[in-house]
Amino acid sequence: MTDPSVNAEYDVVVIGAGPVGENVADRARAAGLSTAVVEVELIGGECSYWACMPSKALLRPVVARADARRVPGLSDAVQGPLDTAAVLARRDEYASHWKDDGQVAWLDGIGADIYRGRGRLTGTKTVSVTAPDGTEHRLTARHAVAVCTGSRAVVPDLPGIDGARPWTSREATSAKKVPGRLVIVGGGVVGVEMATVWQALGARVTMLIRGKGLLPKMEPFAGELVGQALTEAGADIRTGVSVAAVRRAVPDGPVTVELDGGEQVEADEILFATGRAPRTDDLGLETVGLEPGTWLTVDDSCRVDGTTWLYAVGDVNHRALLTHQGKYQARIAGAEIAARAAGVPLLETDRWGAHAATADHAAVPQVVFTDPEAASVGLTLAEAERAGHRVRAVDQDLAAVAGSGLYADGYRGRARMIVDLDRETLLGVTFVGPGIGELLHSATIAVAGEVPVDRLWHAVPAYPTISEVWLRLLEAYRDA
């Protein structure tokens, strides 16, 4: 909408126009509810411009080249360096050159009104929006306000940090040139994916990890295999170290990183991939009795605890900081808001109903787009044991599966499924290896659907594909 009213009333007001906010708005409008969407940055949010889309656009040529190099008859044709300019240009295309015209058109197309500016709660069901020109818009929601403001990268408060101009995930995915030397602090998903990209594009990467290894939230072998590949590619991975201070003496000069033990590492850029914080510090939460700057606690419909009208969807509720899970929550919340607006009784106890985010508890899938890829859904062995389940881990060397040898010579990978021995269902599955990201949805169905193991036996994998690993895992479980 080109000229939204200074004072306006809507059925639903959505604060934040990333994929999560867009999906809440879409579900609300599909139910016939008038909807306003408020955004202070680009319509489309973090995922579209600084996370999912640009990072995967950067990673795809890296992984495609690695796969091609493992296939005789093709490997000799791809031995040269990547075309950095072409890789970055393709990234720019997928980030829409950091312009949101297409996303604006999409919201316009579903009939949502867009308010550009900073949105803040001012009381129950009321939102103020400060536009870039200083105009104040006052919005009232008849039924619901949905907070979909996402999260931001955390940069630790270290000596010298202000002058060091560190990268976060935003700078790492939007950089215009390859740094000669890049220090990455942190070994989670952002750390390993960005190490994969920039190492392949020519940077000398040093990873500084406080803990014992990479990808600490996945099965240990995932981080081990990804770390092995990064090391073979030339990255220097140091575990059990912490950064004590950073300094950049001149604006365009090198960064000096001082470790706890006094050792110094010099780089051209430093990326902190050390966690996320909620974007709730300037939302006016105090006006409705909530604490600013905190994660918002919600029920399974994403309604904020203690309220009947406020929803927190996506990263801000800290249930699963993943775009696909946020969009899943948005569909749940949108259905809930629409049902309440229509006065439809809700089956609050129906865990598989349209108004319950059941999958956020035990079936959260994630793919790490490194070489090799790592993918998981559900619980790890350690998590299942801590939760008190009686379980068994079943492991399979992916190199022993016929499809993996056809996929690439020298294939290295591993699969694990966690079986609940009392219920004979799967609690978790992890795959690591080239090309395994597309296997994950089958695992997600098995875990989310609580498919009995004896029924999975009848889901026959096609030969010769890597998915035949399912047969090998089930054989190992049956024959033990």
Q: What does this molecule look like?
A:
The protein has 16 helices and 21 strands. The chain has 480 residues and is of the alpha/beta class. Strand 17 and strand 18 (373-378) form a beta hairpin. Helix 1 runs parallel beside helix 10, helix 3 (52-68) packs antiparallel against helix 4 and helix 8 (189-200) runs parallel beside helix 9 (220-233). The chain is globular and about 65 Å long. 47% of the residues are buried. The model has no long low-confidence stretch (mean pLDDT 95).
In short:
The protein is built from 16 helices and 21 strands. By secondary structure, it is of the alpha/beta class.
Key features?
480 residues; alpha/beta; FAD/NAD(P)-binding domain; Enolase-like, domain 1; 3 domains; seven-stranded mixed β-sheet; 21 strands; 24% strand; globular
CATH architecture call of the largest domain: 3-Layer(bba) Sandwich
Share of helix, binned: 25-40%
Q: According to CATH, what is the class of the largest domain?
A: Alpha Beta
The number of domains is 3
- What does the largest sheet look like? 7 strands, mixed
- Total count of helical runs of at least 4 residues: 16
Percent in strands: 15-25%
Low-confidence stretches: none
* Overall mean confidence score, pLDDT: 95
Structural class based on helices, strands and sheet pairing = alpha/beta
CATH topology of the largest domain: FAD/NAD(P)-binding domain
Radius of gyration over C-alpha positions, nearest whole angstrom: 24 Å
| Rough outline | globular
Number of strands: 21
Protein name: Dihydrolipoyl dehydrogenase family protein
EC number: 1.-.-.-
Domain FAD/NAD(P)-binding: 10-324
Organism: Streptomyces sanglieri
